[in-house]
Amino acid sequence: MGRAVTTDVRHAVARADRAEDQVRRTAQLAAMSREDLALVLGGDPAQAAPWVEAAAACGMAEAQVRLGRMLLEGTGVPRDQHAALRWFLKAARAGDAEGQNMAGRCLEQGWGCDVDLTRAARWFAKSAAAGDAWGEYNYANMLFDGRGVDADQTAAVALYDRAARRGHARAMNLLARCHEEGWGTPRHAANAAHWYRLSAEAGYFRAQYNHGIELLRQGRADEARLWLERASGEADETMRARIAACLAGS
């Protein structure tokens, strides 16, 4: 009995110490400039974790999203997808566009919850409406495929276009594919080539492959080879085999 009481006391003292540390850190965070705050919260995850937790607990949406990402990935804190979703939802309900997108991702993928495509689509829609490029891209994917929402390829293309113009490399690649195939928009080869090139230049390997193939069609084999070789660095085994066949025939 005595040992159990001693253990309980130790746990209570530890909890009190943690609470005191969090209060102290919260006061220090409140006194920091935005520049210093960004440095503290954006540093090495292991060192930043106590500060991020304190900032998240006092309602800072940016810190709530950062803590959610750390919990989701297990960086700086133990991996806990359920807790990650809770923090994303706190930020999302406060109107944070990145938090809304990440809440949608968790619900779409079943990270810390059961898959719920309808709720995922709603959070993506809120994030997209707030102008978050990832929210626009993810909501466009849901609209394009009719997952959690009625299919609407025309609306999806409009969102891909918005995200692409914000510099979102994956949206650029899918916008190009829509122009190439005539999905949700009239076929437009020049637009497709334009967006494939921009996505490739932004570093997206699938677009590097697509841009390389387009250059091969134009007879620009030396340029195509460079882009296909870049794409192979991140490509899966199937794509690497296709790239090897293209390079062998060029």
Question: Keyphrases for this structure?
Answer:
mainly alpha, globular, single chain, Serine Threonine Protein Phosphatase 5, Tetratricopeptide repeat, 250 residues, 14 helices, 77% helix
Characterise this structure:
This protein is mainly alpha-helical. It has helices at 2-31, 34-41, 45-57, 61-73, 81-93, 97-109, 117-129, 133-145, 153-165, 169-181, 189-201, 205-217, 221-232, 237-249. The longest helix has 30 residues, at 2-31.
The percent range for helix content is over 70%
Quick one: CATH superfamily of the domain at 165-250?
A: Tetratricopeptide repeat domain
- Indicate the CATH topology of the domain at 165-250: Serine Threonine Protein Phosphatase 5, Tetratricopeptide repeat
* Parts with pLDDT < 50 across at least 5 consecutive residues: none
Number of helices: 14
**CATH class wording of the domain at 165-250:** Mainly Alpha
Shape annotation: globular
Largest sheet: none
What is the alpha-carbon Rg in Å?
23 Å
- Measured between the Cα atoms of the first and last residue, the distance is 80 Å
Summary, kept brief:
The chain has 14 helices and no strands. The protein is an all-alpha fold.
Please describe the topology of this protein:
Layout: H1 2-31, H2 34-41, H3 45-57, H4 61-73, H5 81-93, H6 97-109, H7 117-129, H8 133-145, H9 153-165, H10 169-181, H11 189-201, H12 205-217, H13 221-232, H14 237-249
